[in-house]
Amino acid sequence: MKKALALLLALAMVFSLAACGGGNDGGAADAGGNQPADTGSDAPADTGSDSGFKDARSLQAEFPDQVAWNDMSEEELLELAKAEGGDITIYGISSRIEKICDLFNEKYADDGLKAVAFDLDQTEAIDKVRTEAETKNVNADVLQCKDVAGDIFIEFVPLEYVELYFPTDICEHIVDENLMTYGMPFYSTLSYWYYNTDLFPDAEPITNWWQFVEKDENGNQKYSIVAKEIGTEQAYLSLFASFIVNADAMEKAYEDLYGEPLEYTYDASEFTDIVVPENNAGYEFMYRFSQQEMTFISDGDEIVSAVHNGIEGRPTFGLASAGKISGRDDDGLSIAWLTDLQPYNGIQNCNYLYPIAGCDSPAGARLFIRFMMGDGFEAMCKEGNWSVVDNFENPKNPFPISEANAIAPDLEAIYNVFLDTQDAWIFWLNQNTNM
Predict the structure, then answer these.
(1) For the sheet containing 335-337, what is the strand order?
(2) Fold classification of 191-347+416-429 (topology level)
(3) Rounded to two decimals, what is the model's pTM?
């Protein structure tokens, strides 16, 4: 609810820009040194909602000079990038962004182009782009990041911090056009629960989210839980927000598992600053989850290590990004994903690529994005990263993303409940006597 007003204000900005004839030139800065901005994220398009929501490509159409970049070939962009001169600077959230730059620099060495990467975490990358845009001191050309809560598309696009870029020939190969609802997708991933394969060698021990909050016959917590602190980790909090958005599915998952109606135990009347509805299965799950004994660890590698070693002598389950499965092969950990949770494993989150508005190398930025979607993806080939194009398949993945039991995110809906979800989580966690 808190974000609803921000959403309306952001959309009002978009419509105001459209009424004034669109945005700035995608290749030329305005008088203050800034360019039009856009961002993205992935979810089913909803161009006709009552809120006036427009998907990314419809929104980009309001900026004709941004659209003009879409049909430029690699050769055309290369010539423009050479004329721009200077380094192409990338703010990325992948540890492999430096490797992509190395590959790019190798390919374009004779053309005098050089890409420089800054490997940042999500919060750092977003904060830097926002601060540099607001102070008109833009230092980077490309942003690679996630948009799990809709902040970038719904806030950064109307504020013109980043731009949208949809290279026509590459977009023809996007497996699911819904992935372009909020921006140009780079690759898909999701968060998985991990379990210990030594303890459970024959079958996955949990098949339903409600099992994570089960008690044993003595009323004690059945499993040890390890994760990043849900309230401060945007990707995980967005996942919990999706349960609130999809409350009917959560309620059905409970009834399918236990054969009886869900009993609601949280008290919605406790809240005065936010509106928490009664009898919402997503809130009920989050309440029960928040009252458990949990171990919060900020590093994903340490989370999967804890799953391997166990906590408190109980079977231990850890929530971490899919890519942390690498600990199985690199460190010999006895870990695997839980792949058949009901009502769904998680959200199919995309990493997105954006030219940064007001940058020094708008053509170079787009040339680099094209490279990332092609030859550069070689550096991203690890288990847990799924390509979004139909002319390339990561051979290290055990199954395609279509078989990952993950839902496409509805970032507009998640955005509208995200802050209330966070406030409710913090409120209930503070009541936890088991921590």
Answers:
(1) 294-296, 224-227, 316-321, 191-196, 335-337
(2) D-Maltodextrin-Binding Protein; domain 2 (3.40.190)
(3) 0.85
